[in-house]
Amino acid sequence: MPVLRWIRRNLVVIAGLLTLAYMIVPNIVVMVFSFNKPNGRFNYAWQRFSLDAWKDPCGVADLCGSLSLSLQIAFWATLGATALGTMIAFALVRYRFRARGAINSLIFLPMAMPEVVMAASLLTLFLNMGAQLGFWTVLIAHIMFCLSFVVTAVKARVMSMDPRLEEAARDLYAGPVQTFVRVTLPIAAPGIAAGALLAFALSFDDFIITNFNAGSTVTFPMFVWGSAQRGTPVQINVIGTAMFIMAISVVLVGQVIAARRKNNARP
Amino acid sequence: MSLTEAPPAPPAEPREPVLRKPSARKRLVPYWLLLPGILWLVVFFALPLVYQASTSVQTGSLEQGFEVTWHFQTYVDALREYYPQFIRSLLYAGTATILCLLLGYPLAYLIAFKAGRWRNLVLVLVIAPFFTSFLIRTLAWKTILADGGAVVDVLNTLHVLDVTSWLGWTESNRVLATPMAVVCGLTYNFLPFMILPLYTSLERIDGRLHEAAGDLYATPATTFRKVTFPLSMPGVVSGTLLTFIPASGDYVNAELLGSTDTKMVGSVIQSQFLRVLDYPTAAALSFILMAIVLLAVTFYIRRSGTEDLV
């Protein structure tokens, strides 16, 4: 049987593509159901095609407010975590000092702990301090859990950097600031960008830690969570689809630019 | 850790005493770089754990206030009352992790060795779902697994549901609100965390090793068993950890896709903290969860013999 033989030879490819399908199917469902006109509150069964939700994505009370709040928090959390994380990464890779091991484990632990545990313990701290739960407590929490991921991403890049490039810059009479801005930073930039992107995605999408520490503040994931009980508006699918398409386009454009740069550099 | 790759420190030249002062100041540079970030982690990560430890041995009520009484009975009571949720969490997270490994390995292998010029596109497709809020995607599973939907119909026609119902994973004629739906959601949610480390470690493997194995008359299966898989171990280990740890504390999948019979320990912690306001029990529960996870992780890392992984 040639078909069976073909299947056997390409088993890995078939299995891999099936997994890929498993990963993409929910996104397709989200996309398809953004064109649905549901009958009743729940958008789980297909009724009929409609562009209503796309014409009026902010038509649901509080939805775009929560979206903009999430974007703001993600922006500031990314800024904070990237700045602090980059500094830590440089210190860990470029300097030998005491307590390096302890600091490495302190960085690793937040990634090795179930989110509920971190969320709950942060809440006990805030309760004990009598802090007002809201924007600031969420921001503090987000910077905290994004930090480790930024450090890991930047560290990987800084480790592979050739320190001789900086020495060369110094030999050419560049001052420390000049060396950093003109040489070190551009080389480390891809790692910092990767860390920042990761922080943004993690912060924007976080539900568990936010749910514990937000008080009555509603971020976008919390809005989605709440709507799951009350009935999900189609607009949520519109925003999910838009995010998916935007992400894919950004990455593809980045790929194209990178490929072109590579081609230009070759001759 | 690439301690060995680090550049050797330039030899100190203490010829001119004037130069000594700036070098002493330079020695403080790493500490200044570390200070803000580490302070943040100490205050908002480590200190809260201490607070939580103290909360877990307090007694009292919200009205009268809580007091540290070293009441360890809370731990015993919490464990006695909620051990089904603990067992369920570990069981579901473990199953999801194994499924992630089984599903993720072929895809990681495909990207690393077979995708050719499609590699970047496939990688984008693996990462892109991250950008649609995971809650929205999890809700989509409600549609996919809906009672009387296409998936349930197919599984029914193939008599798969008869078998899984007999095993207690599903109820006859429905998948939603059963353990299978929760595990399916967990697997789906954490697959990228398995695939990416697997891919990174597979990509590092020198293709010539495969050729060499072939030259030595190894069949593809033997090559995989003796060469590829052992060399991908770092990816397997970090992928398993990145899947198992968050999955064991997750409650989103259990709440959205499951029923009251599939509640995981995360749900209990959440409702004790945010609804029942029984802080000592909630703190004790989350400490027990943390302890179990850390123990399991330590044991696993020891067993797999890759301690310098992280």
Task: Give an overview in words.
The complex is a heterodimer of chains A (267) and B (310). Chain A has 267 residues and is mostly helical. Helix content of chain A is 76%, strand content 0%. Chain A has helices spanning 2-9, 11-33, 52-55, 63-94, 100-108, 115-129, 135-159, 163-171, 176-205, 208-213, 220-230, 234-265. The relative contact order of chain A is 0.14. Chain B is mostly helical and 310 residues long. Helix content of chain B is 71%, strand content 3%. Chain B contains 14 helices and 2 strands. Chain B has a two-stranded antiparallel sheet. The longest helix of chain B is centred in the first third of the chain and has 42 residues, at 73-114. Classes of the chains: A mainly alpha (267), B mainly alpha (310). Chains A and B meet through helix 2, helix 4, helix 5, helix 6 and helix 7 of A and helix 2, helix 3, helix 4, helix 5 and helix 8 of B.
Summarize this structure briefly.
Chain A is mainly alpha-helical. Chain A has 12 helices and no strands.
